[in-house]
Specification:
7-stranded mixed beta sheet; 6-stranded mixed beta sheet; 13 strands; 11 helices; 2 domains; 60s Ribosomal Protein L30, Chain: A; alpha+beta; homodimer; about 35% helix
Chain lengths: ~350, ~350
């Protein structure tokens, strides 16, 4: 049985180009002007974009792909699909169609691996009510897989990064630590059998809207999903976009059972360092231990949603989220802007 | 100055997974059911998909990406963009938004290469009136670039592969031979300077609808773009979908100045063989020489549109096409179904 993580050098969102490098590169390109219908433009290469079709309808678009972060082909397909669909959910949208992005080492891996990867992704699309409408495949040295996803959202009900309000509670839907846990898998310290909790978490769709009443849904002011830049990196982007300070309490953050021991054992990725660098000027983590700092910089693959919620509704929202996301909870609050975009207390 | 073709093993659409292998693989996957709004589903991994939004509007979706087929980063970005946008034009649609798919060997190639690739693509998006709304980038062993594109089309004016009618003229908008010409570039037999004709052709947008009157546009019954499976492979798909036989006259096919000599010198790709295999049971090419057979199997990158057109309008259409596509012309006709999907006469 092939172990996919042994076929690549680095896996998952940890393999993405660092945010600071990307910003420098994109600043030098003369992009075409945006159509007036573009409401949100994923300029930083990582958010979903929103394009308005009518007063009642906008389309949400995103794409994501990566090298294997897990060993089983079917689990890899499911994680990659859940991860790509998540960007639509993070905008308050409902995914409708998906196209596959597949790079495959023909003749090196068995073709059955493609079948399994596509089956894992198809199972998630079925669960999400998404139609699989095509894609593109190439012969390549290492396996990469992901989806380009299109969804619908009402133009007035978009969860942009800029909507967090002072006083909001910050709710995180999934535990942290997929980066270090999957690094320990890749270096064969732990097995998939020992990592069922993070594996199941990565395969869980970030579909939440169907859980809520209209009042509850309207109390969600802003959202993002936590992926490659870690809790700190994505919170920093959202806090800056909203012009607020996000305050987290480390002890309230949900972690996988193995997260701390994996970090203590030194299972790190390149992204741990680049995320620390990306966030150091704007995030205060003085009170944290080195291992705790690595938790908040841990690159997540198919991580949770971070929701900024009216405090009057947060208890009801957490209760409903728990029916699907066992580790969901309030992990911090939104404060008026201070010297820091993000402040993490022990 | 880096020569991008020297950084990869195989380039462009020649690197795609062969159609016959793909068909076998996809046949084993239990895909999710399609939403009733899916009008066209790019099941074979290579056409654009159509999703109906209302009686007046459908969205066209496609994605395409590949390794460098040319040496200059800016030209590579432009070719990749023109190639990806082409699938929307081939459905009769107008592209609106695009997201980038970028795999890049950080630390191996200079970051300036990314800037140039994105600039080349942005220039084409500007020309096409397309907004660049995001994308995803990963660190990878070799450069790959492409776009996921969304466009609009009227649901009743879709150019499907299934609409060709007996008696139609077949019009091809660009000359053939990018596969062998770029193979000669990669093997350093010819330079980009010597290959300006195919380079310019690959960078030319397949935008045609704006040239035509309503009557002319309505006389186009079916269309496809000629890419990795070559003239024969894509014609076979369209002829079968339409339940007709496509008859070509080899002597009428436009070729780049260097196409025949490159093929005679043995500049072939893996796709020449796999395209021949893919088409052998359904296409008659008995009367052609071995070199001519390789012309019709030559994998095109950003190749021309093949339009199936009412004969009463074909002269007017060719005349208007020539203002933008100097090599456009009638290359064959659609016949009632015979034993062959495609018949190529000398």
């Amino acid at each position: 049985m092939v172990q996919l993580t042994q076929t690549v050098k680095k896996g998952g969102c940890a393999a993405k180009v660092a945010a600071s490098e990307l910003r420098k590169i994109l600043g030098q390109v003369q992009f075409p002007p945006n159509d007036a219908a573009v409401m949100v433009d994923g300029g930083l290469f990582d958010d979903a974009a929103i394009y308005k079709i009518s007063e009642d309808l906008a389309i949400v678009q995103t794409l994501d792909f990566f090298t294997p972060i897990v060993d089983s082909p079917r689990a890899f397909g499911a994680v990659a699909a859940a991860n790509a669909l998540s960007d639509v959910y993070a905008m308050g949208g409902t995914p409708k169609t998906a196209m596959a992005i597949l790079a495959f080492p023909l003749g090196v891996l068995e073709n059955d691996v493609i079948v399994e990867v596509l089956q894992g992704a198809s199972d998630k699309m079925r669960e999400a009510g998404v139609s699989f409408v095509g894609g593109h495949s190439i012969d390549d040295d290492t396996l990469k897989f992901g989806l380009s996803v299109t969804g619908f959202v009402h133009p007035k009900r978009v969860w942009s990064n800029a909507g967090a309000r002072a006083g909001d509670h910050l709710i995180l839907t999934k535990a942290l630590g997929t980066g270090t846990c999957m690094a320990s898998l890749k270096r064969q310290h732990l097995t998939e059998g020992q990592l069922q909790e993070p594996l199941n978490s990565m395969m869980t769709l970030n579909q939440v809207l169907d859980l809520f009443s209209e009042t509850e849904a309207a109390s969600i002011h802003s959202a993002t999903d936590i992926t490659g830049f870690g809790l700190l990196g994505h919170s920093q982007q959202m806090a800056k976009a909203s012009g607020k300070t996000f305050s987290f309490t480390f002890s309230r953050l949900p972690l996988f059972e193995q997260t701390l021991s994996c970090l203590e054992n030194g299972f790190l990725t390149k992204a741990h360092a680049s995320n620390a660098q990306y966030t150091q000027a704007h995030c205060r983590t003085d009170g944290l231990s080195p291992v705790q700092k690595n938790v908040v910089c841990d690159p997540q693959t198919s991580g949770g949603l971070l929701l900024s919620v009216d405090p009057a509704q947060s208890e009801a929202i957490v209760k409903k989220l728990r029916s699907r996301f066992g580790r969901a909870g309030v992990v911090g609050s939104v404060e008026p802007a201070s010297a820091w975009a993000v402040d993490v207390l022990p």
